Amino acid sequence: MTPNGFVVDQVAFVVPDLAAALPAYDAIFSGSPWRIWDYGPSVMSEQAFRGEPSAYSMRLALSATRPQVELIQPLHGRSVYSEWLERGGTGVHHVGMFVDDIGEASDALGLPLATAAQTGSGYGAGGDGGFAYFDAVPEVDLILELIAVPQTRRPPDTVWERTH
To answer: Does residue 160 carry a pLDDT above 70?
Structure first.
């Protein structure tokens, strides 16, 4: 359990090369099949980084496990992902919680939405879905992500499955 009764639904890792990382992470988490998407300005209607509008992009893979394991490769632009790799971050990048309303959840956790390190929205098939990252516990370098899962996801760009 997380503060105020929230449950950790996702554990995420930032990797420099998603294709190279998938076999190793799948061996640990048995997450196959992994659904893979590219997110960026062409998919997301709104993006912000450190309080300013931003055009960042990333490739992400979601496991078929619970909690969900996410691998993220930054592609372009400044983001919490590129910051992580630039400073030599390893291990867990963030934990995510599925919420109905990001604003309400951030208020309940005492993390005003205006202080989010990075946000994005509109990646669902119907233009819904959003996320917000918070540098929630700087003492332990913990980033929390609040995720409003889209009602319908667009089909993955590709699917990766273990072949052995």
So the answer is: yes
